[in-house]
Write a structure and sequence with these properties.
Chain lengths: 114, 110
């Protein structure tokens, strides 16, 4: 089945130790999104790629970076994780930006920072 | 104040009950989504609507654009419906972004 896959599902990292989260999709969608969701809060968009075009949200900390080497894969890099970065990180894809296109979400990666 | 508000925040029900979850928003929108998030994180899109009403199985979603309000109904609720239900809107003129509500946690007991 076509889907959005996130690895790993659970990630533990140490304070200040760089960490990379992975998202892949078999849907051949043009748009890939990264969201951060803290406990009992709504998901918050960090950035998204439309094809190779990177779009950063204004309030996304510089500590968060992203790479999209090809259509299928997108990575979230956290350069120096702080305790406040512990959250669920959700990847989503969409065929395009038009209103009629739904977003398809992956299962998420739960990040713990010790 | 969040631009997308949901009520109630928490909801418990007995199996078989009719459930209603409400979503109000304060911005002009081009579409509204209802999403389901199970423990463990994964989000599933239930509905995307911009007018009227949609039905899928025991789930019904309605939207009133003039009143900036949407409802999600679950008929004959079942314990497997227990999840967090999230309302998200796509603001008019900004096709890149979804604004999310904080979700309604539903627990259905046998």
């Amino acid at each position: 089945d076509a889907m959005v896959i996130q690895n790993p599902r659970y990630q533990v990292t140490q304070f200040g130790k760089p960490v990379t989260l992975s998202c892949s999709q078999t849907l051949n969608h043009n748009v890939m999104y990264w969201y951060q969701q803290k406990s009992s809060q709504a998901p918050k968009l960090l950035f998204h790629y439309y094809d190779k075009d990177f779009n950063n949200e204004a309030d996304t900390p510089d500590n968060f970076q992203s790479r999209r080497p090809n259509t299928s894969f997108c990575f979230l890099d956290i350069r120096s994780p702080g305790l406040g970065d512990a959250a669920m990180y959700l990847c989503a894809t969409s065929r395009g930006r038009a209103v009629s296109y739904e977003q398809y979400f992956g299962p998420g990666t739960r990040l713990t920072v010790t | 104040k969040n631009e997308v508000e949901q009520s109630p925040q928490n909801l418990t029900a007995q199996e078989g009950e009719f459930i209603t979850i409400n979503c109000s928003y304060s911005v002009g929108i081009s579409a509204l989504h209802w999403l389901q998030q199970h423990p463990g994180g994964g989000i599933v899109s239930l509905f995307m609507l911009s007018s009227g009403k949609k039905k899928h199985g025991r789930l019904i979603a309605t939207i009133n654009i003039q009143e900036k309000h949407s409802s999600l109904h679950i008929t004959a609720s079942h314990p497997r419906d227990s999840a967090v239900y999230i309302c998200a809107v796509r603001p008019k003129g900004n096709t890149d972004k979804l604004l999310f509500g904080t979700g309604t946690r539903l627990q259905v007991f046998p």
